[in-house]
Each structure stands twice: as C-alpha cells, then as structure tokens.
Amino acid sequence: MIQDFFRSDLSDFKAYEVSKTDYKVRLDANENFSNLPSEVRAKIAWAIEDSIFNRYPDGAASEVCARYAEYANVKSTNVMAGNGSDECIQIIANTFLNTGDKVLVQSPDFSMYGLYTKVAGGIPIEFPLGNELKLDINGFISMANEKKVKIVFLSNPNNPTGGIIQREDIIKIINGCSCIVVIDEAYFEFYGKTIVDKIESYENLIVLRTCSKVGLAAIRLGFLITNNVLMAELKKVKPPFNVNAISQCIACVILKQPEIIYKNVECILNQRKYLWQKLKDINGIQLYRTGGNFMLIQVENAQKMKERLLQAGINVRSFTAATLKNYLRITVGSREENDYLLKNISCKNGGII
Length: 353
Description:
36% of the residues lie in helices and 16% in strands. The strands form three sheets. A seven-stranded mixed β-sheet has the order 2-8-7-6-5-3-4, sandwiched between helices. It has a three-stranded antiparallel β-sheet with strand order 9-10-12, covered by helices on one side. Strands 1-11 form a two-stranded parallel sheet. It is globular and about 55 Å long. It is of the alpha/beta class. It has two domains: 2-36 and 260-343, Alpha-Beta Complex (Aspartate Aminotransferase, domain 1), CATH 3.90.1150; 38-255, 3-Layer(aba) Sandwich (Aspartate Aminotransferase, domain 2), CATH 3.40.640.
C-alpha cells in the first residue's frame, strides 16, 4: 500500500483548512480592512511592468531586506525575507531542531509554531496561560529550563488573545531561558513596542515580522531579524529564491513610502478604539485588552453567535480547542463593517441578541 511510505509521526495531522473568502464581511483573518489606494496600485503596476520575468528573483531579496531594515531600524545583514513569516518559522524549526528536541509555546498561541515543530521532528510543549489569559513569566522560564527545550516561541502581542508581554519580562525570558527565544512581532505596528533593538545584545534572540497585517497579505512576505551568528546558520536552511520577484517588487514600492503603512495603521487603531468602546457596553460579552488589529471576546455560547453571524454574512474566528470553546476573535473592520457586526450582536436593551 502506498500508505506504507507515509510518515507515521504525521498520521494524526490534519490539513490546515483556510475558510472560504466570499463572506460579505470578513473579520476572521486579521487582515487590513482596506485595499491600497489607487495611486499606490498604479505605482506598483508600473514597477511590475519593468520586472524581468524570465530570470530567477534575487535569492537574498537584497533590496527588500535593505528597505525593511531601514523601516525596522536595524542593519540589512540582520534581516532575512521569507514567503510569509510562516516560512520563517519553518526555517527556524528546520535549522535548529533534531528529532526529539523540545519546543515551548504558550497556550493559546499561533498554531504554526507547534505544527512546524512536529514536521521537523520536534516535540511542542504547551504552557497554559493563567488568569485573565496572562503568562506566568517565572513559571514559563522554569518549564523551559526544566524540560531543556531548544526553542521558545512567543507572539507579542499574542494571537489570539491580543495580550502583551512587557519589555522587561521579554528580556527576563531571554536572559532566563537557556535556549533560542523567538519573539513573533506580527502585530508590532498596532502595539508600537519592539524588542528588535536587542538582537545584537543577546545571542539567543530572533524576532519575526510580517507585511500581512498592514495591507500586503496577498504578497506573502515576512521577515526574520537576528544577529549575524544565528543568521549564518539559518541561511544554511533557507530555500533559494524563496520570495518571488513580484512580491519583492511590490514590497519595495511600499517600503519606499512607509507613510502608506503608517496611515493604514492609524485608520485601524481608530476603528479598534471605536469597536472596543461599542463591544465594552454590550452585556454578556467579556472583552480582553488587545495590542493587535483584533480583539478576543468571551460569550456564553460562542458557536451559536458564530452561526448567527455567518447567516448575516459575517465571518469571525472561532476555535476548536477546549480552552477557547466560548471565545471568538474579531478582526477590526472598517466603520461600516464594525457597525454591521454590532447590529448583528447587540439588541436594543444593550445585551446579546
């Protein structure tokens, strides 16, 4: 049987299924709610027209990395581009993990940390968040060292909770854990604080970034930022030509004008404030503080609310994990999308429909 050639350790894996995209209001994927302005799209079209299609792209994505380094205020030699930050996570796992090596993640957190750990032959260990979905810093450090983990992955702000790990606590984790520490700053722009300035100070620190949350989800571009010693090792595993020429071209147009990103972020933050205030006043919803472009809510019957919203053409993120059974993650939308969401959540007496 052909199944005899399959990997036995992947037998319980389930394919990552992406939900369909033809909803009236899409508030499930933490994307930017607005497309790029027409004048920016025109500049992109002109740039693409000059692209060389019969040659492989720049394997190092040199210009893109240089532009992003300027944006992130680091050296270009400290930046690696990936086909989305997902690929950067995979490169890290494939670079450092031997079969049976352990990786520590907080739970809940971005699922791809555990998935790529398993694919690389590693063992993911989950450290559950405590009251109010907060991370016990000392307990986390103790477990990392007790279990002798090789890598720690932490998203900050956290996905899906939106929670924040303060800078001094991140430094405590970097100092306290005898392993590589990966801080995923996918939602950095909405939080505004970073640890990227410490990549040269700590030999075990890697920072991840992405363009997906600030209006460029379609081009699948992420970045890995670290010191020269770790970078040299990571480059051994990075696939050649992993970022295509069109994605590089588009990113360079945007990164030459970072005010496009700043304006997008400002619009999202304004709508986040608006949506927060409205949801906060609805009886029956527990709302969690967020540093991302989304917010997590807890309701008595999340699946019932999810189904009701789907009937109205609104898709939000629900979860299968028992710890998040009655939670929904809602991406911040445009004013019109947010109002339509609120109309389908609350009733006139201020409670849940």
